[in-house]
Amino acid sequence: MKDIQYEIVKEIAVLSTGESGYTKEINLISWNGKEPKYDIRSFSPNREKCGKGVTLTEAEAEKLLAALEKVLSE
Description:
Layout: E1 6-17, E2 23-31, E3 37-43, E4 50-56, H1 58-72
Antiparallel strand pairs: 1-2, 2-3, 3-4
């Protein structure tokens, strides 16, 4: 099985921290050397492991932002 490699290009925010020390983060990440995407997922302390997450292109992130701004302003 192919190793998955990632590089955190830009740390954006830690959204929460669980009792176990895992953090839910949003970052700009390059997966396997590809174009960086916005990424929301959990990481163990020291980022040794990461959980399942969601990656978004810039266009998808803009649509998500617009949708959240709309619903949160209601």
